[in-house]
Amino acid sequence: MWNPRGWVKKRNNAMNPTWILRCAVAASLAAGCSSASPSATDAGPSTDVVADAARADGSADAAADGSADAPAVIDASGPFTLAPGEVAEVPWNAGTAALRVATSVGTERYVLVLASTQLDAVGDPVAYTVSASAAVGSPRPTVVSGCSLDAARWRAMTLPAETAPTGTAPAMGTERSFDVPTGAGTSERITARVIAVGERSVVWADTTAAHPATLDPAFVTSFVGTFDQTIVPRERTEFGTESDIDHDGRIALLFTPLTNRTAVAFFQQCDLQRVAGCRASNGAEVLYLTPPNVIRPPYNTVNAMNEILAHELGHLIHFGRKVLRNHLPGWDDNAYMIEGFGALAQDVIGFQAGNLYVTQAGLDQIDSLSLADIVVDRGAYDATRDGTLRGGAYLFVRWLYDRGGGDVANADGSVTNRGGPAFVRTLIDDVDTVAGALPTVSGAAMPDVAMDFFTTLAVSNRDEDHGVAPVNGCFAYLPVAHDPVTMDPRGADVFATFHGMQMHGPATQPVGSADGMLRPGGVEFLSLDATAGQPEVAVTVTVDPGVAPRLRIGRIR
Prior knowledge:
By secondary structure, this protein is α+β, with helices and mostly antiparallel strands. Helices cover 24% and strands 20% of the residues. It has helices at residues 152-155, 217-239, 302-324, 335-349, 355-364, 372-375, 386-404, 420-429, 434-442, 446-459; strands at 20-23, 87-90, 96-102, 109-116, 126-131, 142-143, 175-183, 186-197, 201-206, 251-255, 265-268, 286-289, 407-409, 415-417, 481-482, 489-490, 497-498, 501-502, 509-510, 517-518, 523-529, 536-543, 549-555.
């Protein structure tokens, strides 16, 4: 999220396996935000990634269900016709892809999705060329009617019942010592006192003379009630039950001004697992929080605190289920995969406000994003692209959640699984990392997953931008809905309006002025418009085949 001091720098030191997951508050978290809802439906994806489709350019008509009869005659030398909302895959030949598209109306608008599916390592950008011409007889594109991910399995899955932690909470006024990380591998021992005890939480306030925590009782009562009654129960439904290594049945919410030396809030693995590099461990489920009086407005509201708590509790549960339950020696998930799940927690738990800022950053700076930065295991934070990678990670994880089937938030505060919670729980609970488990549990190849995700960024919600929604539901985020309890938006919309701001989808370059650089594992979105009076438009793209390039074209108008 946005930080008053800029993007929060977070690092997994290769010489020190200790993870500290940190959260910074976005501007105007307390403000209400609105979002236009897409009209695209959650079409049931098939397991076919690309299907032949027929058109009026010499091939058979496509069926109403998106399938197609085998073409009787194909004029390989003629332009290809793409219907509004359709997406087609363009074949490659030795690093070159070319296509000719019929433009009988003269006002058609297309977006090209040029992606690298080299996802095994982060690398330097490679050059590509794009020209507005194509050789006669170029291989014909095929309309994409399927999806790499199938929601059927996850929608049919019943979430297992789990016993919630129970235990005796420390009494009001109890004091104990905590070792608080203060950055650069250092920590400081403080004394803290219990100032509130909830059903699922206990609030500790720093009483150290040099930096006592000041907390308004009404503020504490408000966020403790929300944490106990909404945040924890929903996170257990979405991600599973948290660990309880200190057997008190509660999450420790520790407020100290020292937290702000690192970030507004964070969770550290050393409290739950002592590994090499841990300077100290508090032996409890602890979330470190900055007292509101130390944070400048508007970052110090109850709403901001609730969003932070949802995010950091997501980290704590993720670690407990991935590492502790599987008895792993460490947390090998990529730092930004972890942040993607933390951002998803803000969204699905019902407190999405600051999350929208990183979403916009990811879209505006899409050419700085590589999916390899998210899926390569043990990947560290990148301070120069932190906001972009956080936003991209959220959009990726939210897309996985939607393709799993999503959920329904109910008026009583409960959440009903429609496949999304079952899918992400399976990924988190698997003994492998999330990225390692994804192709195994889904049966999908990662290049196909990557291409479907990038295509979604290109064409989802286009009906909100004077265009058309994608025909294939694989390429549309589920409609945004306002949470019946918090009234914040749940879901991703790449053209959302929020806090007086407007998203405009992923940054797109005209074909004629493309920057010509593609990150391995990254994507370039190129706009291609018809010209009045011209019967077709044509494009040829050339790039090093070593980056496993793929090209799709979507008609958005």
